[in-house]
Amino acid sequence: MTFEEAKDKFIHTWGTLATQWGINRSMAQLHALLLIAPEALATEDVMEQLQISRGNASMNLRDLMDWGLIYKQLKPGERREFFIAEKDIWKVARQVAKERRRREITPVIEVLNELKSIDADTPEAHEFQRVMVGLSGVVGFADNTLNAVIKAEENWLMGQFLKVFR
Amino acid sequence: MTFEEAKDKFIHTWGTLATQWGINRSMAQLHALLLIAPEALATEDVMEQLQISRGNASMNLRDLMDWGLIYKQLKPGERREFFIAEKDIWKVARQVAKERRRREITPVIEVLNELKSIDADTPEAHEFQRVMVGLSGVVGFADNTLNAVIKAEENWLMGQFLKVFR
DNA sequence: CATTTCTTTTAAAATATTTTGAAATTACAA
DNA sequence: TTGTAATTTCAAAATATTTTAAAAGAAATG
């Protein structure tokens, strides 16, 4: 496999994986492209390389910045903006963990706490409460795991732990 | 909040959360409904309670069975099929972890291994390879975490570990 | 078997999401 | 300022996904 083939395969694979996780293809492919780019790219570059429109590029570049996965880079003497991805992959993972926790886990924990506290006067209500308590446990585990990723400055500690389960 | 309100809120919340994770609303709501149902439900019941068509119900019930999250239950003397959800929430979590690992992580690991092994003769190719190696690490961590969930028969061990990171 | 009851399949419709392209806006330089 | 290059916005178009409804298929019953 040549480098060009590998690059295409990576961008394509990343785009496909992303859709399974509720992330749109353009955004994932943009991220993939910037991840492997040795230099910062201008909007025009990504438009051309991924064959997407200016509007699409602009919106998804912004979303990626909101996620903290890419940065704007200003080049002296250049008017247009360049974009560069965060290259420390563990930092990327921490960032994604942080955002997903904030956007998805935290709100769910709150709803579950609310639902847990109805009074269980009927059998149905009792069963319901049992399920809510169980779910709180699992969601709490997910929350802790994301926290583990977020807080692990080094990853050897996590590595040590995970050996236990192999 | 009454039990009925809580029930509706749960089904609705679960449906919303699911779409953020690339799972369709009907499937998530079906699962939510069955999770909190104290008795097995027939197709008609879920059609009525969620206001969805027979075909929709049929397809998503099958998908849920494929994920190992619900079971068919045959009642003596009854011709139609009833469905009951796996009620052990940790078992549900293990099942989801197992399936996502099989469907999403394992294939990505293979692609990354393939892409890691191109020869890095140019600076671009070298950068590319560096990223692939990094990603392998992160994906490997995800794989290990899912394995931890899958293999943890008891969850106290995981609980012990996670205290370290709090 | 034929009939009834229930389930599954599938093509079309409905809905939701993503992408485009052009206009509006912004930012900078002259 | 004014003009130009670049970015952002947003309504419309394209695409993808989900849902429906009706037909086909199975399974049980008499």
TrEMBL record, chains A, B:
* Family matches, as InterPro entries: HTH-GbsR_regulator, HTH_MarR-typ, MJ1563, WH-like_DNA-bd_sf, WH_DNA-bd_sf
Q: Which PANTHER family does the UniProt record give?
A: HTH-TYPE TRANSCRIPTIONAL REGULATOR MJ1563-RELATED (PTHR38465)
Name used for this protein in its record: HTH-type transcriptional regulator
Q: What broad taxonomic lineage does this protein's source fall under?
A: Bacteria, Pseudomonadati, Bacteroidota, Cytophagia, Cytophagales
Record keywords, A-Z: DNA-binding, Transcription, Transcription regulation
Picking any one GO molecular function of the record gives: DNA binding
Q: Which domain of life is it from?
A: Bacteria
Task: One Pfam family, please name it.
Answer: MarR_2
Give the HTH marR-type domain ranges.
22-80
Q: Family, per the entry?
A: Belongs to the GbsR family.
SUPFAM superfamilies linked to this entry: Winged helix' DNA-binding domain
